[in-house]
Amino acid sequence: MSSDSTTSTYAEPTEASPVSVGRPGPASPIVEERDFSCAYDGDVAFGTEPEMLKREEILPLLQKVEKPGRYTGGEFGVPYKDAYQARSRIVFSYPDTYELGMSNEGLKILYDCVQRRPDLYADRTFLPWPDFRQLMKEASIPLYSLDQHFSVRSFDVWAFNTAHELHYTNLLYALDLAGIPVRREDRTAADPIIITGGTAVSNPLPLFDFLDGIFMGDGEEAIVEIMDIVARGKEEGKSRKEILQELNEVEGLIVPDMYRSTLHEDGSILYHGPVKGKRTYRAKEFAALENVIVPSIAITQDRVVVEVNRGCGQGCRFCHAGFWKRPVRNAEVSNLVRIAGDLLKRSGNDTITLHSLSIADYPWLEELVVEMAQAYGPEGVSLSLPSLRVQVKTIPVLEMTSGIRKSNVTFALEAGSELMRERIRKKSSEDNLHYLIREIFGRGWDLVKVYFMLGLPDRDGREVEDLINSLNALGDLARECGPRKKVNVTVSLFVPKPFTTFQWEEQKGPEFFDVSIEKIKAGLRTNRVHVRHPTPWMSWVEGLLSRSDHRVGVFIEEAFRQGASFDSWDDGFRQDVWETIMARVPEEWKQLWMGQKPGGTPMPYEDMVDGFPRERLLRDFEKFESINEENMNPPHKQALKESDFPPELLKPVIIPEEKQKRAGYLRLRFSKTGNFVYISHLDMMDALRKALRRAGLPMTFSRGYNKHEKFHLGDSLPMYMHSEEEKADISLYRPIQVEDWTEAIQEQLPDGLTLKAAEFLEKRTKEHPSAQPYKLRFRDLEDAQRIFSLLQNAPQTVEFEKRDRKRKRVRNLPRHKSAMRKHEKNLAESIQDLSLEGSDIRFTLTLPGAGGLSVVDLLDRYLEIPREDWNVKLEVWKMPV
């Protein structure tokens, strides 16, 4: 589901609400009819009991995968509730990896909406990367939830937020891994109801065969309505079909079970069933979350996101989000400042992103930036802005946000000529962009990002040439402004989307994009512009899925069966699979779904979703066609004036000088166990930093370009290793009474990090022990005795080959050969204080800096215990010195 939307118009279900491409006349008889309703398993009562997986089943797999922290759960802020007592249970997913899913704001909002209700239970799951998926399949472990490790199949509802058409195969990937039939017709009362929302399902037809519900619009209110209907249905012993019939009454929710289609002799197709309007959430604030989960690993958007408004009034003709998320709803400044403060306190983050489709259109932007910066800048919090309009008013705002850290500056120009920008209604001037970039470079920024688009409706055939000229002009500008100035350009490939002015345009193929991109690269005469672009075949597949009807479902499933998944990833996209699939799509269907159509042609989805009159889109399309060089109205030239810099914007907020001076240190000693065994050293550092920010500890900030809290951790602890005592020295700008802070710090530490001791130091004393105690805790006594014997009888030295990353590569030798070096280490003398207590082996090991070897080398090279066996056959513990 989604938490963003636009207009709210709802038509009562009718007996036959037709949707068609080229509606048939009386002379076009029906040749095929399909009813989308399913029998399921009859009158069997819907629902099942929660099924919790054992932790012991999952742990052995985590030793063998990339980023095991994706799959552990147990993050700070998870609200633990009794799932067995809940009236209904839902699991939320973003159909991609943990890092992307935990960055999705819509999912956070919906999760919070359900968790606020004490009688409802919500959980999360995300897609495992193929390495973990393969291991799960081999071990017969189904997809499970993160909060309490329940089998996903044992939930009542599974809700996705689908942001991209290339996620469609991932939906099937997730269902299959959970042991749920991918097709609706094969599901029973024991399977959850599968629903999705998001901008990628404004055309719901491609997913008709797979999903039980497709939601249109804002989901804050609807998600609770859905859960209440399911709860009542379970309490009354209703069947799956009966609950789906009741869900059909939820405004904005399309239930495929309620539709039928007719295929006619002239090739047109009609859909009959309820006409649904989108839901619009109208409030004075968005995303005021009570349940804030802090990821234990780095995610894509690791910051506080404040939703400034929803919707966009610019009306760019190519922009699906601009049409889909109307109307514009602005949040009040005071509410935004309050929400930001609450989220900062709950998360420990130090960056606020102001989220908006068009931030420059927010009517109180300067006031908001000033209040945010003054309230949170002195605490080391920086502000980040999304893609900006080409307007001079953005420069004072950027200056105000640059006091703590200089955020990225991004502009969306989209096209290389004034004429094309006028046609697509992108009111941006290249002269004004150059003026802004020159100003920004002159104010200390070294990098600017600019977005362009390729494949727009180009009636004059000048698109590529204009784009080359525009890029070269940006390169010349960067060279004029200084030796370090650069422009990063992203060229996205245009895909016509439903309910936009360009929904009747042709989807250009990969051949066009390949040739055009080569021309652009060949025409670049500057190294100051770096150009990135997606794979052309990805846009071709996106085009296939965007405007098609239900018949494309068979090709989505076939692509998944042949191995397609993570199609939105450059290194995950299976072009070979999609080439095979595309060859199987009939040419007349390709033309119907991806070809040029006369303006005003009925589309297969348009009457199923109310609120986008074809006549309105057609009038705008005709305006687009009528624009030429004689009647265009380009933006006027802009220049900064003194009035653009009100006094409150002239001086960026900075961290006070006293917070950058050290008054002493807080030395913390803490253990690392549980889920944090699977968290890297860098991620553990970040988790500790956020915990200390949440506790309000007066930490000293660094000086320089990107200011941050100053603290020191001991040597890096290998992943998968437990530790009884880690040490951190935190620089403070004022002395503290330690006993006043220990409880607050412990409350903010995530599960797996436990405070053992704390002391205030006026000066930091460095500790560099020459030896380190360890403990090996074996599962099996015989293994412990065998390893103990090996350690007792260790030879004087041990030799092994090890990759040496510091060595330069030898010319003409394979990389793996030149990167290996022989090592000879003292062994017998390095092992001290050896003892066996039951199945625990204790010893002290001389460290490499003192002539010994690392514990990893001891285990792997001499004892032949690879890391894959840690936490499976034994636990490796670092003990206090």
Detailed description of the structure:
This protein has 881 residues and is of the alpha/beta class. Helix content is 29%, strand content 18%. The chain has 26 helices and 30 strands. Strands 21, 22, 23, 24, 25, 28, 29 and 30 form an 8-stranded mixed β-sheet that branches. Strands 3-2-4-5-6-7 form a 6-stranded mixed β-sheet. The protein has a 4-stranded parallel β-sheet with strand order 16-17-18-19. A hairpin with a 2-residue loop joins β28 (831-837) and β29 (840-846). α5 (168-177) packs across α17 and α15 (510-523) packs antiparallel against α16. The protein is globular and about 90 Å long. The model is unreliable at 4-22 (pLDDT under 50).
Quick structural summary:
The chain has 881 residues and is of the alpha/beta class.
